[in-house]
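A quick aside before the break. I want you to see a complete sequence-to-structure record at least once, exactly as it would be stored in a machine-readable document. Don't worry about memorizing anything.
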Amino acid sequence: MDSITSSLVESDSTMTTTAESTEFEGDHDDPADYVWDAADEILVSLEGDSISTDAAGAATDGGTIRLTQAGTYRITGTLDDGQIIVDTASEETVRLVLDDVDITCADSSPIYVASGEKVVVILEDGTQNTLTDGAEYDLVDAEEGEPNGVIFSKADLTIAGDGSLVVTGEYADGIVSKDGLIINGGDITVAAVDDAIRGTDYVVVKDGLVDVTAGAMGLKSTEFVLIEGGDITVDATGDAIHSDNSVAISDGSLLLATGDDAVHADVDLWVGGGTIDVTESYEGLESGTITIDDGDITIVASNDGLNAAGGVDGSGEVTADGTTADDTFSRRGNGGGGDAGATGDYYIYINGGTIVIESEGDGIDSNGYVTMTGGTVIIHGPTGTSGRAEGAIDYGWTFELSGGVLVAVDNGSRESKVVDSLVDQAAIRIVVDGVVSAGTLIHVETADGESVLTFESAKDFAAMSFSSPELEAGTEYNVYVDGTATGSDIGGLYDASAYEAGTLAFTIEAYN
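That is the input. The structure line, written in tokens, reads:
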């Protein structure tokens, strides 16, 4: 290892601004949606190029049926080229029980809700259901370009049950609600040339297996996206999860790969639990305000890991020439102490959880403020300079740290302050004349041999910042390199008792 020196940082700045949350007034979910009397079911049989049913008020025309009354319809069979239309003025629920259904509609939505209050699609236990559209539509409303999804609903829409559903959208979107959309069960696979799953008022995932592939965005809403459970896998060209307003993730498991943002909200993004694994992204989590209270988050990003900025996010939108629009969300800052692009209106709050970031741009980037009161944050930052200053941490005004564990390594190209204000917590910063190779163990312990850090970087680095409640300002610590670490690690951070000593490199004094 090349000679290592320490750089001690002091600050007198304090962040006092707090974030404002956006209220969600509730969804349309009702326990009664999932309970009905089997004796009241109305059978609809799909028979290739025709449909048979005794449903009152139902009109059939070849492979098309129009349901005009509320009720529970059990649908079974195959349509080679047909459509189920729900068109009712009733305020009662229309329930569609899909029982081994296979519907292809060459020129429109296989399931089209033209009007209604609420439609609940139940995937019958143990059944396999398939819905497929064509590459060209005969639009009902050419001005609005509707319908434009395999399942297209102008009413509140719920999908639930214990069966499977495969949706293939060759024209545009997969599953669309012009009102609210709830997924509360089922094994759902969606592949769409545009957005996979889209709601207007909200998209809420409560349960189920959801696997989507999208030519634009994975899950998208104009207002709210709420992830309350389920296992969600997204492979999208645009944002994997996107809201023009707010996203809230309280539970569930998310596996996200995207050419743009993994999770994007124009206004507010909150994580309070669950697991988020971003295997590929341009930026990981992006919003005007990001609040992380809990959860396990792993991010791989070709630019920033966490990005608090503002503007209009055009990413993932397919333009008239078939290309994907650029992300115009403002994201540039120069780090530490008020750069020219900072406005103070953007915030990252880290209060808990475990966050592991591997980024080619900034690991954490806020065009305003960063505050950390708890949790564990591990950043494997950029190794090159890419012609501009990129580091593990970048903020426009201040970064206040009062709790939690922070380990951040990068190329050392940004010489500005890493943590602007330490409140009742100490830190150390190590700067290298040269490069520390990926896989090198860095171990920090007290003079009495009490371990406070054992860390192995996934990337080469030239600078490391470390802060922990276990550090005491003014106390000297021994820094070791190499050695061995046993047991499991989280993002390269090992349990303190898992280290066998390597070479003592130097001592360093913690600062506050």
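Two observations worth writing down. The longest strand covers residues 261-280. Residues 260 and 282 are 5 Å apart (CA to CA). We'll return to this after the break.
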